[in-house]
Amino acid sequence: MIPILGLAVGVVLGLLLDPSVPVWLQPYLPIAVVAALDAVFGGIRARFDGIFDAKVFVVSFVSNVVVAALIVFLGDQLGVGAQLSTAVVVVLGIRIFGNAAAIRRHLFRA
Amino acid sequence: MSGTQQASRTRSLGASLLDQVLAETVDPAYAQAAAARADRPAPTRGARRRGQALVAATMVLAGLLAALTYDQASAGSEGREQIRDALIADIDRESGVTDDLVAGLAQLQTDVGTARAQALSASTEGQQALAELARQEAGAATEPVSGPGLDVVLGNALPSADDDPVAGAAPADSDVALVLDRDLQLLVNVLWASGAEAISIDGQRLGPTTTIRQAGGAILVDLRPVTSPYDVQAIGDPDALNNGFVSRPDTLYLGQLAVTYDWVFTFNRVGSISMAGAGSTELRAARPLGPAAPPAGTTPGEGTTTDDGD
């Protein structure tokens, strides 16, 4: 319950405060969100599997976001930013789908 | 299960990579942490609290990130929309200003003409000058005219019904298939050669120094854009105009182009056409009337005062 509340508070804070993001960081926000989604779904899946661990969740979240943004940044520098961000989205998307399917099986037993 | 394992062993590297991505959707670190935890005693209440707080803080971060990204994306599209609207408003406003200025100019020209006629009609010399002026003005196409003539419409191919409206009616050679400035120039020259006394394109009168040029995708007549279909009207003896127009080889050439590129190309006689005067010509030369002393700016040895300013 507390994590969901935290998510809601974060969304409300972001919408209300409307903090300005430095321009150089803006291209990496969408990919960071996808990476964050992957970490969150992984955490939920682990929770249902009964193996959730706070430390692992926090570390995986931060490293996921940073690494995804870093990969795209590196791609941008090498001139393959669009392709690399596609690769990141495909891999993370597959994982999100897999985790969502596992969560669904836990929730609905189907 | 051994059957599938056997199969996976013989699969290519790419396929096994995909298998791994598909199978390992949850971070293996969770399983390791769980295994390590099983060996240790249960965590204290404080440690669990701390873990919960950390998770909550991370989720706040996730929410913040999502909200920020949403804000950014929506601001981007809103900003583009706003800029577009502002630009369109700018164009509309400036076009209005131009129209006002043109109307003002026409009014002032009429005033000047009236004042000049009043001033000159007093003397015989002035009347002669006035008659000369009228002749010159007719030549310079600055006076409004009306009369019978020919109406020629030349336009780009109309979009056909089976064009995809989303992908746009853009065949590969669409740039070639458009009416170009030189086609319009050719048409105008054919009309002059056929005996036209006055010509207008989309209601814009052509003077002796009028240009028909292409700038990007638009055709400009004296720097004002005209759009397809181009309505070219010519005043003159209708019979002579019509016969001359039909019999000239350039008209045949234009007709062939029109057939090739599906252009709109029609012409018909019109009983009465009226045209406004062409934009005013710059005053470049002036000569003092009569034996009055030449003004200070006169070039010595010449009877004319030239003014190349503005």
From TrEMBL, chain A:
Keywords: Cell membrane, Membrane, Transmembrane, Transmembrane helix
Keyword Transmembrane among record annotations: yes
Any Pfam family matching the protein: DUF1290
Subcellular location: Cell membrane
Entry-linked InterPro entries: DUF1290
Keyword Secreted: no
Membrane topology field: Multi-pass membrane protein
Transmembrane segments: 27-44, 56-74, 80-103
Domain of life: Bacteria
Sequence similarity: Belongs to the sbp family.
Entry protein name: Small basic family protein
Species of origin: Klenkia terrae
